[in-house]
Amino acid sequence: MKTFWLSLMTLMMLCRTPTAALPLRTSDRPTQSNLGLPEADQEFAEEYLQHFYGYRSKSERKKRSADADVDGDWNTELCEKVQEMQRFFGLPPSGELTKETLAVMKRPRCGLSDVERFGDTIRWKKNTLSYRISGYNTSIPASKVRKIFRAAWKIWSNVTPLKFRKRNRKEADIVISFKNGDHKDGAPFDGKGGVLAHAFLPGHGIGGDVHFDAEEDWTFNSTGSFNLFTVTVHEFGHALGLPHSSDPGAIMYPTYNFAPSFDLQLSFRDVKDVQHLYGISPNFDSLFSKKPPPRTPEKCDPDLSFDAVTELQQETLFFKDRFLWRKHPHFEETRITLISSLWPENVPANMDAAYENVERNLIVFFKDHQYWLLRQLQIQEGFPKNISSLGFPSRIRSVDAALHFRKERYTVFFTGHECWRYNEREEMMEGPPTLIEKQWPGIPTPIDAAVFYDGSVHFFKGNIYYKFDSNSKHVVSTGTTNELLECKQADNEI
Ligand SMILES: [Ca+2]
Ligand SMILES: [Ca+2]
Ligand SMILES: [Ca+2]
Ligand SMILES: [Zn+2]
Ligand SMILES: [Zn+2]
């Protein structure tokens, strides 16, 4: 009880904003209040917010202010900065330094701030730019590094009228180098992990220059930790004047979330932003007519459909491609984030189905013939496994959707026109499948997803959801999927 009151007090102290009406959390949630945090984490978080969100620390504020209430203001500002960061990354904006907020803060990332906006004016005033590589200092062979940089420039010159010329000796607009620790530009590198690289916006001297942390385990294939090409494309974006994007599909998103096999391309957002600065490449249409830059799914898209939907503690998670929306009952906004930002391990994109087993504290993901079991964000040993080990016959190659019944402790799997009842207690299938139309009359098959939402079962097919009443056994209402994500017109314009 004591802990409960303490954490409630912290919340109130921290958040004096309208969102101060925060929920009381039950103690079994894996979130933590700030009080439970080790001091090192608290310090780390403050430094992170100083660096990337323009937060001023307590001592800094004291220096500048004779105000006696520095503590109060400081707590409010800290809370607001945590919320700002949480919104940027699509986390529930509680203002609390939860475990998962810290996990996102600890993701490897770019060294530039997420909140500085430079306006439209910071750009090169010419279309041909020169670059020079000053020192390689990485285990990747120099010839390979040159190739990587050339390919990264091409990514940007494919969509703009810009041209990039390599120089060997003479001064160049953009100087690229690998640096160790403190390299005298006011932004020391931090060794392995953390900040991977940074770049300077267009301008004279150091302007446009790009620095990589020489201590990282750089790679050009899938062996090391960080793919140099991926990070280079991002940093070159800064060298051209682009800020960070909160669109998780953008290459200008600040964290590194890439599987080794990721096939890098600029997103629709990146292309739009860089073309806003420099205009369109004359070859753009011929290069991209067949395969236009991918758009991040939008919750206001009237045709929005989902791959899978599941409950997760109090939240409802809507999965689509590499992304998900998180709907928390206590926060109005639902924001998009990356699956890989929530589960850094190799959780599949474009998944088929997902459900939460509350009692065993597990989340289960399905893709094709495999399924993954996760506890506390960790993939359990021995997974992924073949779905046949759940008791499916070999003719079943994938699962369309999964619906978990918390009280009764069973899960229904949907495959085509059939559904299967799986007993979670016995860990076995309860007999042969039945037809979906018998169990859930009025539901079109095959379905995309199913979930308990707002007290009743919701099925999803295309851009429509079907709310099903289990007592009267029929569909009581339908609507478009994006109604559930609270699409507001303003969201469209962000
Ligand atoms: Ca580093
Ligand atoms: Ca320069
Ligand atoms: Ca599905
Ligand atoms: Zn960056
Ligand atoms: Zn530097």
TrEMBL record:
Disulfide bonds join 300-487. CDD domains: HX, ZnMc_MMP. Hemopexin repeats lie at residues 297-346, 348-394, 396-443, 444-487. The keyword Nucleotide-binding does not apply. Ca(2+) 1 binds at residue 216. The keyword Metal-binding applies. Can bind about 5 Ca(2+) ions per subunit. Its main location: secreted. Its cofactor is Ca(2+); Zn(2+). It is found in: Secreted, Extracellular space, Extracellular matrix. Keywords: Calcium, Collagen degradation, Disulfide bond, Extracellular matrix, Glycoprotein, Hydrolase, Metal-binding, Metalloprotease, Protease, Repeat, Secreted, Signal, Zinc, Zymogen. Ca(2+) 2 binds at residues 173, 207, 209. Ca(2+) 3 binds at residues 190-191, 213, 216. This is Collagenase 3. GO terms for molecular function: metalloendopeptidase activity; zinc ion binding. Residues 120-280 form the Peptidase metallopeptidase domain. Residues 1-21 form the signal peptide.
